[in-house]
Amino acid sequence: MTNVGEAEPGELSLAAEFGGASRAQWQELVAGVLRKSGALPEDFAGAPESRLVTRTYDGLEIQPLYTAEDAAPPAGFPGLPPFVRGAKPEGAVRTGWDVRALHADPDPAAANKAVLADLEGGVTSLWLRVPPASLADVLNGVYLELAPVVLEPGADFEAAAVALTEVLAEKEIPASEASGNVGADPIGLRARTGEAFDIAPAAELAVRLTGKYPNLRTLVVDGLPFHEAGGSDAQELGAAIAAGVAYLRALTDAGLSVEAAASQLEFRLAASADQFLTIAKFRAARRLWARVTEVSGAAGIGMRQHAVTSPSMLTQRDPWVNMLRTTVACFGAGVGGADAITVLPFDGAIGLPDAFSRRIARNTQAILLEESKLAGVIDPAGGSWYVENLTDQLAHAAWREFTEIEREGGISAVLGSGSLAGRLATTWAKRSQRIATRKDPITGVSEFPNLAEKPVVRAQSTMDVQNGGLPRVRYAQEFEALRDAADAYLAEHGTRPQVFLATLGPVAAHTARAGFAANLFQAGGLEAVNPGAVDDVVAAFKASGAKVACLCGSNTSYAEEAASVATALKDAGAAAVLLAGKGDYADVTGYVFAGCDALEALTALHATLGVTR
């Protein structure tokens, strides 16, 4: 508060005492750093930041710097078309998003116990992958007027609808207050199983239910089959939008208005550990669907979104790291404006989660909502030059995928012809190569593995998502297959397959490369025998009992010793002699270095060491 006679303070100008920095100055500083690191030649004439541009699997360019010059199309306002900034004007500020837990235990009693524990712990809705016949038992003691249920009945959606409405009647819930989703999804089922299913029965069911249960949805548009096949974000969005359009057509053909038809759909999309792409994905998805409903004549109906933390990113090895992955994914989905979020338990890739992992999953959301206040701001990413541009780019890429699907006859046609599967497989091949070379590292698996960890064992669910159509992949699966084979070798022989690290020169010369090599070999379940600095490397190799050696040292020590030591190791019985680094040395049979195909190198080592799958 100013004193009488003092002038009113002017507008606060942050960092006013500093001169403005230009982009040219920033480029000069970037160039200096890149030249020192060797990433930029002295005679490079282009923009130095071009060396820092990254590209997504959709080919979208991520710039190292965004400024006010990087304008994006206006995102509109929350609660209004195109709904980029959220489907509701108030966002999730008052209630938070819907915390939804998945349950798939085939034992009704066990499922019911887990359901009640989740609801007591803060879960607000349920996603049930259980037989329709056991639905009443699973929901025993559940107040459905407070906790809506979303079913995943597969082909049994008619029976599931009957079972759900019977439970609603038994609990005396007025039809006007019933909510949730029957979960019919014949297109998603076709993607999962490869079998064609008629959409018309699901549409007819929607017509019957909507007259009596105005707030109960009938259909789910599931994007997870396309994500789990290794697809990109734009491919998942394009396929999901195409499926939504197919359902709109079927529902309106069955007699519903466009508004009523659009209100019957809920979209299920994956949230990954790439937080900015996840934020952009949910914002872009609403924009895409807003365009569809606008053209269809129902511009005021926004997309209902259910985010699920990516099943593909979950690992079986070092599964505790999955807690971090799902936290980041949940953050991205929440900031991106998803209506409901399911955090899959950290042991979800192994089998049925236990009480501890379910508790961690729901508490992840509780912390983000209650302690971090993540829902306390409407569209917190709005106005970010980076996020707004990424949202726009992703929306255009997904729209191209959608229009290509429509051009080929629609989602059912491309699932039948295999053309969509082919595009997804192409993306998976690119992703697999980046995983194999550790350009897309998987912490605890391809990087920093823990060979001493005890495997987590869980019971398997008989109600798991069906397969037979599009493949279901996990990013860690190939590295984990190597670990499984190495563990089987350990069980049979009593010792792990070993690689001897032949260290050359003083400790300072070999430490970095020995550490790199040990980390790489352990990703394949191989034990790296590191004697440190020794006077006689060959004698130490013989004493270790290993069959393979890897030279680790500086470039100088390689020039002086690599060829002679490699020859001596080979003469001492080494079946293979590797070198940590690059070069061309006599009797060195392979090279491991940053960016090499680690999966290929480890597979070859398994073969040499007699490790079989």
UniProtKB/TrEMBL annotation:
Source superkingdom: Bacteria
Similarity comment text for this entry: Belongs to the methylmalonyl-CoA mutase family.
InterPro entries: Cbl-dep_enz_cat (IPR016176), Cobalamin-bd_sf (IPR036724), MeMalonylCoA_mutase_a/b_cat (IPR006099)
Cofactors that this protein relies on: adenosylcob(III)alamin
Presence of the UniProt keyword Isomerase in the record: yes
Species the sequence originates in: Amycolatopsis xylanica
One annotated GO biological process: propionate metabolic process, methylmalonyl pathway
Protein's recorded name: Methylmalonyl-CoA mutase
Keywords, alphabetical: Cobalamin, Cobalt, Isomerase
Self-association and partners: Heterodimer of an alpha and a beta chain.
Keyword Isomerase part of the UniProt annotation: yes
Domain Methylmalonyl-CoA mutase alpha/beta chain catalytic: 56-128, 136-478
MF (Gene Ontology): cobalamin binding; metal ion binding; methylmalonyl-CoA mutase activity
Pfam family, one: MM_CoA_mutase
A single cellular component GO annotation: cytoplasm
